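Internal ticket #5521
Category: modeling
Description: The requester needs a full-assembly model to guide mutagenesis choices. All entity lines are attached below as received. Residue total reported by intake: 722.
Assigned to: D.W.
Attached entities:
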Amino acid sequence: MQLVLEKRAERSTKIAIASPLIAIALTLVTMSILFAILGKNPIAALIVYFVEPLTDSFTLMEIAVKATPLVMIAVGLSLCYLANVWNIGAEGQFIMGAVCGSYLAVVTNGTDAGPWVLPAMLLMGAAGGALWALIPALCKVKFGANEILTSLMLVYVADLIMDYLVRGPWRDPKGMNFPTTASFDPVATVPTLFETGRIHWGAVVALIVVALATVMLGRTIKGFEIRVVGAAPRAARFAGFSSNRLVLFTFAISGALAGLAGIIEVAGPVGVLQPGISPGYGFTAIIVAFLGRLNPVGILIAGLFLALTFIGGEGAQISMKIPLDLTKVFQGILLFYVLACDSLILYRIRLIATAKKASHGVA
Amino acid sequence: MKKLMMTAAAAAVAIMATGFSATAAEKLKVGFIYLGPIGDLGWTYMHELGRQALVKELGDKIETTYLENVSEGPDSERSIEQLARTGHQLIFTTSFGYMDPTLKVAKKYPKIKFEHATGFKSAPNMGTYSGKFYEGRYIQGVIAGKMSKKGVLGYIASFPIPEVISGINATILGAQTVNPDIKLKVIWVNTWFDPGKEADAAKALADQGADVIMQHTDSPAAMQVAAQRGILAFGQDSDMIKFGPKTQLTSIIDNWGPYYIRQTKAALDGSWKAGDTWDGLKEKMVVMAPYTNMPADVKALAEKTEAAIVAGTLHPFKCPVLGQDGKAVECKGGANLDPGQILGMNFYVKGVDDKIPGK
């Protein structure tokens, strides 16, 4: 006997929506088993993970802070993935956005520069991310280079460029050689929304991004083009859509969004440019994009959900002494189930009897 | 009736009294923020051992919590504040990069006591503490100078902050006392904990001819590489002898337990003040692992050096200290460099074959 994955003839929309929910349910069951093995009460642990963070304004704001970069990056990535363009390097675009935007903050540091600094920083951040993303896009269009590899490899290049700058020319002269720039001036800082808490205007920008992406995908020719090129490349060619132009377009947009997320993060909650500004947001956003069904609103929900697991995981460490590793296991299991459920929507498993020759091997 | 009311009142007082005593007996919550995983066998592991020693000593009066793998980026401020919000009254943040986040949270929660390791900023409710690790480095330098056959030492460095630079300088100053021509090669790995990178650096140093390897990073990876190559090495943070039974010469052990116990006791009896603690071999915040894999005369020399540092008759940064250019550095502390010069050290001494990154 042999297991074979067979493509299903049609797919049901209902199941497509249900799939991530099934994945989440399966994750919760698996996690409960893991909690029980660790000797913790699964119900109590799940409450600490998923309910407690929602009952308190501090943790709610922190969820928003954490979700902001994830959502912005993931929306950009979803445009790529819908068009069958595989940008894996959002982490690098995030960093280059942070670097390009920070340039202004560093050169104006300590001067009495006006309120133009922050908007200019945001523009430069978006431009930096977009230009960085256009490198793999151009390599793909001009030379047919695999964008998965090139975009991923540029992450490390971006990381090293930032490393060089904060250790060298941009280092805070008063920072005891620690690799960090001087703290940004108030005019170079994204303001917080409220007196207390760290939630900042970046969260509002993320919501605007979600709204714009929804409109673009649902109501514009460009959105239609993205979906057609992704779903039916041949049909798209007949319709006169250029897949090369679309590669450049989606990479530029997703790079710009990642770059914007980068500079907002640095000018917001971090307040300086330093190594480690991203605990892997660019990669986690890939999970968010797929968990959100490559749909902007879905991504918003998925981003908030993943942020909840981070904050809840921290709460679980504090109140139930549940190790941090379990939060990571959790996110891994979640992605695994999402992909598994997706496969089962598109494919079905069939047992096929194999030739006699193979069955001899069992003995 | 009157009697009944009095009984009721007495009962109420009694209930309130027990209520109050229950509050008084409530355990002090002590929180720790860790940079790495508790299983790094290095920096974080030693803070964790310190926490465990604290629990052993004061377990009936306190309750401890730790958050591990807290990156020094934007997450750390939230993690520290989470501890502050969940009733922790004394919070230790155990890495340099938590300095500004700790300061921010300390200003927001003036009634909570904060202790930040290895930094230089403080507040009325935020003290700092660190070890004089350069004392141990100096002893290692003496040993390495004796044990290196090729006269080349390999040093895996993390970040060019003063603590790391003073460690490099103390090492070569110690080595020069026994071998004036000793060479010290430095590789910067730009991380505190990355076993892969640390191992690569150790291999590169061995390939460049270094036959004694030392490190200012937190995993035993370099020790394992040295063991494979059949050369010698020093452990870091903890006793790493089991990773190189025939390799480890000694190890600088960070011994945080006594400090954590002392500060927690002070918090319990109300005498806690934000201090600036900088203890070394004498106070046993820095402890040397047994001297192994060396001949008796080298061991005796190491022990003699250690005893002299403890007694205060030997200071690793005794003036004159020559800079890389061979000129004596200004000596602000009379006979020795003053603590400020060591805590802010940003120059190499003569003989270091490297350039401080970004300088």
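Resolution: model delivered.
Comment from assignee: The first strand of chain A starts at residue 2 and ends at 7.
Ticket closed.
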